[in-house]
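Minutes, structural biology subgroup

Action item carried over from last meeting: produce the C-alpha cell record for Arylsulfatase A and related enzymes (Bacteroides finegoldii). EB confirmed the sequence was re-checked against the source entry. Recorded below for completeness.
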Amino acid sequence: MKTIYPFMGLALCSVTTQAQEKPNFLIIQCDHLTQRVVGAYGQTQGCTLPMDEVASRGVIFSNAYVGCPLSQPSRAALWSGMMPHETNVRSNSSEPINTRIPENIPTLGSLFSENGYDAVHFGKTHDMGSLRGFKHKEPVAKPFTDPEFPVNNDSFLDVGTCEDAVAYLSNPPQKPFICIADFQNPHNICGFVGANEGVHTDRPISGTLPELPANFDVEDWNNIPTPVQYICCSHRRMTQASHWSEENYRHYIAAFQHYTKMVSKQVDSVLKALYSTPAGKNTIIVILADHGDGMASHRMVTKHISFYDEMTNVPFIFAGPGIKHQKKPVDHLLTQPTLDLLPTLCDLAGIPVPAEKAGISLAPTLKGKKQMKTHPYVVSEWHSEYEYITTPGRMVRGPRYKYTHYLEGNGEELYDMKKDPGERQNLAKDPKYVKVLTEHRAMLNDYIKHSKDDYRTLKVDADPRCRKHAPGYPNHEGPGAREILKNKIK
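Output recorded by EB:
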C-alpha cells in the first residue's frame, strides 16, 4: 500500500514561497544499499517502499557511481566532496594508516553550519573527520532477536539512530537544518556471511527463496584481472562464502532483502516524523548509499576490489520543494554522489561552493532545467580494505562503456554497459574494441593528470600464497590474506 505523508502536496510549493526561506535538508544514507534492491530503479521485491514513495515525486539518477566501493573511503570523500586519493583516506583502517581530513578543508557540515544551518548527524560515522561541522549523536544499540536471520550490532544501532532522528525531526529547530540519518543496514549482511561460513543449512524462512541473478556465474575466470579472480583470498567474507551452494547464495539474497526491509521501516518512521511538523513542507530529501553489495552477482557477497555495478552504482534520489518531478529516471547523465552532493546541496541552499571542489551541481536538472555542465566520465578508486592485501585499481565509466585497470598484472576490463549490463563479457582483449579501449585508457590518464592522482606510483602488496590455486572463488583453498598477515604478526 502506498504511504501518503502529510504535507506531501505542500512540499511542491511555489518558487516565490521557496525564495522567502532557506530549504531544510534530510539526507538518508543506507550502508550497502545497491540499486539492485530499490523499487524505484525497477526492482519488484518490495524492499524499499518508503524510499520508492519519495522517488515517485522527485528525481532519480540512474548512473550514479561512488568514488570507492568501500565504507570509510567513500564516506570521507562524500562529506568532503573530494576523491579518496585527495583525502588520503583509502581504506577502512584507522590512524596512522589513514589520516583525518585536515581542518582547513571545507566539508558539507562546515559549509552549512557556517551559513546559518543547524547541522546534525545521527548514526554511522566512519568518516575520518569529514563530518566536521555536524553535531553528532552516537546511537545507543538496542538489542533484539529475529526468528529468521542473524542480527548484530548493525541492526541494534539502527534502532537508536532511528529514535534519535525521529526525536529531532518531530521537534525541529526554528532555524534551517541539514540532518543526516545514517543507517547501518543492510550492512548486517556481512554478519550473515560470518554466521554461515562454508556450505551450511540455513534457518527456515517464510516465503520462496529469491532466484539467482542472471549474472551469477562467471563465464571465464581467466579473462578478468588477477585481483578480481582472487577476491576469495583477499576478503574474509568471500573466503567464507567461496564454496557455497547455489541455495546458500539464494539465502544470502533473501537475507539482504530482509535487512533492507528492516531499514526501510526505520526510514518510514523518519519520514513520518519529518512530515509531522510544518518544517516537512520545506525540506529537500536525499537518499543515497556509500556503496552497494554483490547480491550474488559474479558469485560475490558483500563488496571488495571489483567495480561491478552492484557495488558501485548506488541510489541517488532527490525530492522536495523546488525539485521538479521527472517521471523517468535520469539516465542520460553520469553522476558522482561523492563529488556532486556537496555542490548540489550548496547550490540549492544558496551557499557559495568552494572553487577547489571538482563536483558538479545537479540543481539545474533537479529544477527541470538544462544541465549545461556534465561529467564526460566518472571514476571509482580502490586501494585496500585493511591492508591485508593491497591491489590498487581504478574504474572509468563513460557514456556507454565501463573500463577498469588494476596495477597488479596490468589487468584491464572493458564492458559494453548497453549490450552487457551484467558485465559478463570482458572486451579488453577483443581486437574489435581496440579503439574503444584506447579511448578509455585516455580517459583514465586524463583523470590521473587533472586530479593529480598518484595511482601509477602506488605499490601492489599481494602475498604469493594468495595466488596459488586456480582462478575463481569456487577453487579457493588455503589461507586468506587476513590469516597470513595475522600469522606474520605472531
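Discussion: The two ends are 56 Å apart (CA to CA).
Next step: EB to file the record with the rest of the batch.
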